[in-house]
GOLD domain-containing protein (Brassica cretica), 213 residues
Amino acid sequence: MDLHRSSTIILLILSIISPATLSMRYELLSGHTKCISEEIHANAMSVGKYSIVNPHEDHPLPASHKITVKVTSPQGTAYHEADGVSTGQFSLTAVETGDYITCISAVDHKPETMLTIDFDWRTGVHSKDWPNVAKRSQVENMESEVKKLFDTVTSIHDEMFYLRDREEEMHELNISTNSKMAWLSFLSLGVCLSVAGLQFWHLKTFFEKKKLI
């Protein structure tokens, strides 16, 4: 195994083991929409939570603070829809690899209101709430850690196969492109030679008519 491939595998393992959660807090003006995309591989589990931050903790959330949420697949299939809510969650198992999109819209309100949204999106091994799965006893804690490691190894295995398939696709694309470029080069050479032959024949005919040769 060469150095480049070894480095790729090490980076892949580190990227999967490291936290892969998308957690953010952002502001959204009423009547506006913000969409967030996440690349998810086929058969991977993904969960998300969203909520509106109460600007006044001692009072109920204002009636103007409502959002509409929609989660769609790369082909546009809706996995989750919620209308006029202040908090919620979703979970899905991807059936295809691609960018899954979550769009959060603030309900239109006059006068305009600025909402603060908390959004958390986890995919793969990180979508499992392992702290809640683990039990108090040492044996059950060890079992939980083993399951977590097993899921991590499975994710690494699936990711490596995914990258290998992508590498094969790119290799086939390069071969196809090189083949087309070769044919295009031969065609261009043929056209150039044809044009040069026609020019030579035209000049020869012209000089013969003028009796220069």
Remarks:
- The two ends are 70 Å apart (CA to CA).
